[in-house]
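In response to a reviewer's request, we include the raw inputs and outputs for one of the modeled complexes. The two entities were modeled together in a single run.
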Amino acid sequence: MHFKDALPLQSGASIRAYDLSYETYGVLNADKSNAVLICHALNASHHVAGVYLDESGQVQAKSEGWWDSMIGPGKPVDTDRFFVIGVNNLGSCFGSTGPMQINPDTQTVYGADFPVVTVEDWVDAQARLLDALGIQTLAAVMGGSLGGMQALAWTLRYPDRVRHAVVVASAPNLNAENIAFNEVARRAITTDPDFHGGHFYRYGVLPKRGLRIARMIGHITYLSDDVMNEKFGRQLAPTLVAARTALPPEGADLARGGPSLQSQAPTLVAAPSPFKYSTQDVEFQIESYLRYQGDKFSEYFDANTYLLITRALDYFDPASAHGGNLSLALATASAKFLLVSFTTDWRFSPARSREIVKALLDNQRDVSYAEIDAPHGHDAFLLEDARYLGVVRSYFNSKVAV
Amino acid sequence: MHFKDALPLQSGASIRAYDLSYETYGVLNADKSNAVLICHALNASHHVAGVYLDESGQVQAKSEGWWDSMIGPGKPVDTDRFFVIGVNNLGSCFGSTGPMQINPDTQTVYGADFPVVTVEDWVDAQARLLDALGIQTLAAVMGGSLGGMQALAWTLRYPDRVRHAVVVASAPNLNAENIAFNEVARRAITTDPDFHGGHFYRYGVLPKRGLRIARMIGHITYLSDDVMNEKFGRQLAPTLVAARTALPPEGADLARGGPSLQSQAPTLVAAPSPFKYSTQDVEFQIESYLRYQGDKFSEYFDANTYLLITRALDYFDPASAHGGNLSLALATASAKFLLVSFTTDWRFSPARSREIVKALLDNQRDVSYAEIDAPHGHDAFLLEDARYLGVVRSYFNSKVAV
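The model returned the following structure tokens for the whole complex.
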């Protein structure tokens, strides 16, 4: 979808003519009351559900949408009933206007000149997409992690246009530790000599070293201690040569987006060997897994997009305009809410979701809350878990009228 | 202390003639029964207590030893009673033989050719130092974090030479998450173009970018979520110019070693400003703090030492030779033990200390255990905390005879 009018941004800047990539699933009903907007997190896209077919009509390998377990015919968010919209955010690198594209003012690639966008800016851009689709009111807006922040922002910025908000594994703002992890990842990228101040495109290089480190840090924080111990523990890695043989093709899971245990490290193809006594070679399986994830990510993700999206996470803080009082901040919201958190998520812990629940209850809002006992850490919001999917299914079945 | 005989290493390699830097405090008694060996963690040194004087006899600023709150006259480890030895480990960069020094075989700087050393290798080297000092048996061996691993290894490798072991904020091995953090830090260093495969000394450069990232990651994991929120929260940083004015001199706390909240970020010298809406400038105080800590560390710490010491952490696992059974592994130990952990330490959690306690109890060993409710995370082992220092004081007063 192309938008001709400039979008004013929270920073005071604006984005001139821009495009948003989006996908839809299911059928918009006659009174346009069954639309569900899905907001994505750091490295996902508009491709939230379903698969892509190749020219011969065959399903493309690993082309499932990043929330395909959640959304589709007969699934918790049932596309036989709802008209679901996935949209790629401004500044991302999967089709919507972002740093890799041409700045109409200069006719050169935006790079580091792409304006800083916030969660609220994304919501404004999504609202324009709904305008263009003729949808006044969403049956629900839904997202996990940073996507949950967008869902929350929708209820504050456009309270009359949202009937339900489903906020999964999210938080009312990032705490210091989360900002810290984002900052280390950003510094790894910006201090990579191939970053060139964000204008690396001109030099024909990519700051892959930095992107690899950023992704490795991210992966550690998406997983729980428990699941890392269970999956990798102190197991030794096979030799690198053997491991490389076992890898899927580079970038194979590009379309999925989203951090996931489902995109696994190479399987163990050789018996554990004794230590190599090396500081630079891989010794442990967890090292092999992280290097592989880092390498893969650096092949497809844009470095400037990584900076922009982590900054949007840092900035989000609806309570800040109300002296830090979240209850005051959420008084604007009139939607009904479902909040979901996961017990082992230390990046967006249940305590942060409970802050939102409490602030909504302070305002006598209708709020359901489920704390799912799941071992997978923050990653759990992308994975199949019967209790988690069951809660969302129940909510949409029993509470979300169309 | 110079050692003429080669030291055989666990890897099968050996280190030819080598030096160990050490300091002592207090007086060795006539029957040499009051020696306490202090083992250091990642980035500390032999300078565990006391201060240095300059040429005019004045105390040098920030020259306190890294465990000065613990060790000294009248302190928990009382140097009026004990003869305390601090030793810098092989492979470190504070005086003992390490990667920055000349390889006698090649007459060039070791760099990446310095052999990989393990916790057990360090213990062997420390035992030789005790031999040279004429000390057969230690009243106690003591350390925190990686230093605690050395204390534990002492009780297994030289059970007849240790009467007490004090193991603080440590673990019987690293779990997958800890190995993962080490690996990301190592990759940041080894993929820095200035690393040159570890032979950067030849090129007249230092892999400072990688060291900065490594240190930033380390700092996040040394602190608890709670203390980061309390100390930094979402507070905005002053401008960089103002912040730099407030900085102490570069490398001022070099001698202290050890991660510590006591070496603080610049104080806030300007009123909080609104967002700059920038992905590359500092916005939040936590970013300023981490950048400062990273910059400072990169000025004084050797990159190859960082790799070696994190690898020693990864490798340590006394249970591995016993099919993973820690109780079997600790059957060799005959020392009495004090274990201490801190409730908010998520890098070396109380659960890991309890594993050691349980394995010692399985062997009917004499073990005391204190779990200190402290807010500071892993860093707590280096900080002044009345309950923590009180426990150690009581143990040394009531149990450690000389």
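As requested, we also summarize the result in words. The CA atoms of residues 76 and 393 of chain B lie 4 Å apart. The longest strand of chain B covers residues 336-342.
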